[in-house]
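#lab-general

N.A. 3:47 PM
ok so I finally got the sequence cleaned up, no stray characters, all 402 residues accounted for. can someone with queue access submit it? mine expired

B.Y. 3:52 PM
send it over

N.A. 3:53 PM
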Amino acid sequence: MTPSERPVHTGEERGAPLIITEDERLLDDLLRLCAAAGALPEVAHGLPARRADWEAPPLVIVGADCAPRMRGAGRREGVIVTGRDADDPSVLRLAVALGAERVLALPDGERWLADRIADAVEGVGPPALTVGVIGGCGGAGASTLAGALAVTAARAGRRTLLVDGDPLGGGLDVLLGGEKEKGLRWPAFAESRGRVACGALAESLPRLHALRVLSWDRGSDVTIPPPAMRAVMAAARRRGGVVVVDLPRRVDAAVTEALAQVDMGLLLVPSELRAVAAAQRVAAGVQQALGDLRVVARGAPGRHGHGLPPDEIARLMELPLAGEVPWEAGLLADLSRGAPPGAQVRGPLARFCTAFWERLAESGGDGNGPPSGAGPGSGVAARGPVAARVTSRAGGRGGGRV
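B.Y. 4:20 PM
back already:
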C-alpha cells in the first residue's frame, strides 16, 4: 500500500461499522473489506444486548448465518445482509423484517460493499459542487480566477478545496502565498488507485485562507497519472462543499478524468478577437468531456468601448455567458505582496466570485450537490441561465450571466 492508500483516521470520520456473524470465512472477508475501506469494525455474534449498540453504528453488516437471531431487532437504516447465497428465501424474508437496504452475495458484491463501508465511516453526504476553470488562451488569468473563487467560497463559510490540475502553472500554493505551508502536494498522490479516504485527503493538504489546497511542489515531476486524478477528484467530491479545479488548456488523459468529475466549466476569455480564436480550439477539446461549459469574459484595462463586448464573445464561442470579470487595477501588486486573489472584498474580482456563488446557491448548487440539471459526466448543461450582474467602480462594465 502507498502512503496515500493507508487508513488515516481523522476527525471527520464517524463510528465503526458493526459486523454480526459467526462464519469465520465470511468474517475474514468482511474484515478484509473493512481494512480496504480504512474502517475498524466491531464484531458480535448476535443481536447486541443494548439497543444503543444496535442503533449507533453507521452501518451494520449481518451475516446470513446470524440473520435468524436478529428477530425482534428494531428496524434501522444502514443494514446489509450478506452471505454466499443472496437468493435464499428465508434470508430475504429476514432482511425485509430488518429493513435491510440490500442482500448481498460475496464475492460478487465485494467492490460495492467496500465502497459502502467507506461511505458509512466517512459520513459521505451530497457530492461537492465542482467548478473547473480553464484559460481560453495563455495569460488569461484562469489560475487567478480559480483562486478567487475558492477564497470567496471559503470566506462565505463553504467547505472548500482548491485543486491545481495544471502541472506547469507554477503552483496554486505560491499564488496563495503558502508555498512554505506544511502538507502534501500532488507527487504524494501519484500512485493513488481506487478509493482515497476523503477525510484523510483533506487533512493531509495545506490549509490556506480557510480552505484546503492540493498544489504542486517545486520538483521536476509534472505528470498526474489518470488513475490518480480519478481517485483524488472522487475523494474531493465525496467530501462535499465546493471543489474548484484550475485546469490547463491541453486536454490529456488526466485532464479528461478531472473534467469527468466537473459539474460546470468556466472558460476565461480576454476581450480580444485573437483570444476568442484560441479559446474556440480549447473549447472544442474540453466539450468532448464536459457538457456544461460557459464563457467568462475578462475585461481589459481602460477598455472604454474597445475590444469585444461579453455578449459578442459568447456568441462567437457559441457558449452561454457566465459573466464578465472587469479589469482590477492593483491586482498584480496585491498578489506580489502575498494577498490571495479575491482578498479585496469590494474589488471587481471578489464581487464577481461572490455573485457567482450566490446565484448558484439560488439555483440549488450551494455545496450540497450540483445545480439542477448539471452533473459530472452527464453531458447535459445546467438548465436555464443563472443571472448575476457585477459592476465595477474601477473601470469597465461588468455583468452577464452566471
